[in-house]
UniProtKB/TrEMBL annotation:
It comes from the Eukaryota. Belongs to the DAMOX/DASOX family. This is D-amino-acid oxidase. Its cofactor is FAD. One of its GO terms (biological process) is D-amino acid catabolic process. Residues 6-336 form the FAD dependent oxidoreductase domain. GO terms for molecular function: D-amino-acid oxidase activity; FAD binding. Signal peptide: none annotated. D-dopa binds at H222, Y229, R289, G322.
Length: 354
């Protein structure tokens, strides 16, 4: 079937963004997503619904991260302006503090493209903070945003979606028509046969969902060994995500009372308006960021498929760590670019862009 010409394994924000880039190029009808978990599901093996989420300077300072961040920020800013309410993304005032000075490359990169960017004068910084900035961020209602993406992909662009777990990446080649497979399996890339990338590891975060409609701004404090953040969840009737933790190599879905207490005391100190009778704790969650030593892997590979060993192309796109929502679109564009020639060679007629 031609609808299986391009297959994406994974329906987290990374797989969905790859599908979106393909669909925007006119290949929606030729693309199938297969995934064990789909938007609307919750599982510790499905990271995307647990994200804060916002655009933050918490990402790395290497060239890839800086480029993907920039691309992703512009995309989200544009989406917020054109379709923010439906997409559950919104421009939001933001403050970020660092206890240790970030790299100059990072600061210069942020200053270049972040809307309303300005450094906070040293005398205005809280005690213990070495550097701070104000800018306009984009907040994302993660669980509803991925549902929006799925709906748009299936209803507007004709992308096919099948719930299916594969035990080997080569099972992504669903039929002889399948020429290109995108591996967007997040944390599962460590164990999935045919990939088994030992550089992958989970980074656990516990978060609290609270109702606190008095909170209108995003605030983050990047400590040496802690991460504290307050992210108003857009179009959620006053819900706010409080965090958090960055526990490398920890893979439990359990939540812990002392972590809840620590998150509450750190976030109230950071934003005193939270310390109010109006703040109601709704729940505590844990999610596992799909981290990877050296950063995300966006790369193509030639493979041999099936008993006959026919040639296939596999494009890896995983290891987004704590940045899948902010960097995902840039990663997707580059992943698709790696197979531009092969997609053209499929000889399928691209539909006009809708
Ligand atoms: C607490 C927390 C806060 C965060 N905050 C932010 C934030 O503010 N901003 C930001 O940008 N990012 C944030 N993140 C990070 C972000 O959530 C991740 O980078 C992103 O969700 C990763 O998406 P993914 O698609 O790679 O993985 P996932 O969402 O885990 O999706 C993986 C997909 O692959 C499928 N799959 C796996 N194995 C198989 C298999 N064998 N067969 C079939 N399907 C399979 C799964 O079912 C799923 O559909 C946060 C994460 C956490 C935990």
């Amino acid at each position: 079937m031609k609808s299986e010409s391009i297959v994406i394994i994974g329906a987290g924000v990374i797989g969905l963004k790859v599908a979106l880039v393909l669909a925007e190029k006119g290949y929606g009808h030729y693309t199938t997503i297969i995934a064990e978990h789909l938007p609307g599901d919750t599982s510790i093996n499905y990271t995307s619904p647990w994200a804060g989420a916002n655009f933050s300077a918490l990402s790395a300072s290497d060239e890839n991260a800086l480029r993907w961040d920039k691309f992703g920020y512009k995309y989200l800013l544009d989406l917020a302006a054109k379709d923010g309410k439906n997409a559950f993304v919104k421009e939001t005032a933001s403050i970020e503090y660092w206890d240790e000075l970030p790299s100059r490359a990072k600061i210069d990169s942020m200053a270049e493209y972040l809307k309303d960017f300005r450094e906070i004068p040293t005398q205005d910084l809280p005690v213990g903070v070495a550097f701070g900035v104000k800018f306009t961020t984009i907040t994302v209602n993660a669980p509803t945003h991925i549902r929006y993406l799925l709906k748009k992909l299936t209803q507007k662009y004709g992308v096919h979606v099948t719930r299916k777990r594969v035990s080997h990446v080569s099972y992504g080649y669903l039929s002889r028509d399948t020429k290109i497979v995108f591996n967007c399996t997040g944390n599962a890339a460590r164990e999935l046969q045919g990939v088994q990338d030992s550089k992958c590891f989970p980074t656990r975060g516990q978060i609290l969902l609270v109702k606190a409609s008095q909170v209108q701004q995003n605030v983050m404090r990047h400590g040496k060994d802690y991460e504290t953040y307050i992210i108003p969840r857009p179009y959620s009737n006053g819900n706010v995500v409080l965090g958090g933790y960055m526990q490398k190599g920890v893979g439990t879905s359990d939540t812990f009372g002392e972590e809840t207490e620590s998150i509450l005391s750190r976030t109230k100190a950071l934003l005193p308006v939270l310390d109010s009778d109006r703040t109601e704790i709704l729940s505590a969650f844990a999610g596992l960021r799909p981290s990877r030593e050296g950063g995300a892997r966006v790369a193509r590979q030639h493979v041999q498929v099936g008993a006959t060993g026919r040639p296939g192309i596999l494009v890896h796109n995983y290891g987004a760590g704590g940045t899948g929502f902010q960097a995902g679109y840039g990663m997707a564009v580059e992943a698709v670019d790696t197979v531009e020639e092969e997609i053209k060679a499929l000889g399928i007629q691209s539909q006009p862009r809708l």
